[in-house]
């Protein structure tokens, strides 16, 4: 029954990600926790129009030599033509910044940095029925919408470095490398080995079609306690409530191969003898399906208040593991609250 259920869930997620009637546009993305459109798909310029220069000042009743009888001069449409001295006009015409302002807006800084910290509650290991207090770091550093370093949540906390090979018309695709945190399974189940933290390499793909975002990430463990393959896909809806509060709701599903499943849910013969659990050698399958909620509220200048909540339900080979079925439970909850500052 579990394989059938998980297959239906995966099919539903993929169908939703591919069947939206709307395309194009930008969305408010909670990944960087910023009160602005998605940072990896906006380009380098803001939409603020260039301000008109102030008109030249002359004594009352006078006008510059050679000026028309009407001062200040007007265009055929009736708008005021605020003339500038010839030297200043030449300087403005030759300035690249002036050209950018007139055509596309004000040039943005190359760097964007968001840093913060908070506290949360999460399962002590993947499949545990106990919650533990954990730190909640917030890091989002971006350079020209091309290179980024950021933290992410989920079943395991991660910090990743990525590069946007393609970043246009809502699409964002590229490689990444992540460090994932380990878990202390042995602290909860005597005789079980802990899972060491390590590194994964992978590829990400994302498509924004307001107000939705479809994304997929493929990772492969190259160091640490996991040497398997994990694939995650999801769909997120984001909206703005009132003037400032941003709300994001998402659904996702994860699939792992046999090596990945064995790293987190397997029970070797030695571990079985020490812990009293039955030996278990899982195969590939759906790890879990999940729902997540994120809220961001800007306050006091550049500060952001960030709230997160997540529910995961383990399926298939993961749910059948003795570390879940006997010593833990399939339903997994986590939540947290943090404060961050945008530089």
Structural descriptors:
41% strand; disordered N terminus; twelve-stranded antiparallel barrel; 18% helix; single chain; alpha+beta; 8 helices; 343 residues; Porin
Descriptive account of the structure:
The chain has 343 residues and is of the alpha+beta class. The chain has one domain (2-44, 110-342): Porin. The protein has 8 helices and 13 strands. A hairpin with a 5-residue loop joins β8 and β9.
Question: Approximately how much beta-strand content do the residues carry?
Answer: 35-45%
Alpha-carbon distance between the termini? 50 Å
Give me the secondary-structure category: alpha+beta
Find the CATH topology.
Porin
CATH superfamily: monomeric porin ompg
Name of the top-level CATH class: Mainly Beta
Low-confidence stretches: 1-52, 74-106
Tally of DSSP β-strands: 13
Helix and strand topology:
Layout lengths: L1 H17 L67 H9 L1 H8 L7 E13 L7 E13 L3 E6 L5 E6 L2 E3 L2 E10 L4 H4 L9 E12 L2 E12 L5 E13 L3 E12 L1 H8 L3 H7 L9 E15 L3 E12 L1 H4 L2 H4 L5 E12 L1
Antiparallel strand pairs: 1-2, 1-13, 2-3, 3-4, 4-6, 5-6, 6-7, 7-8, 8-9, 9-10, 10-11, 11-12, 12-13
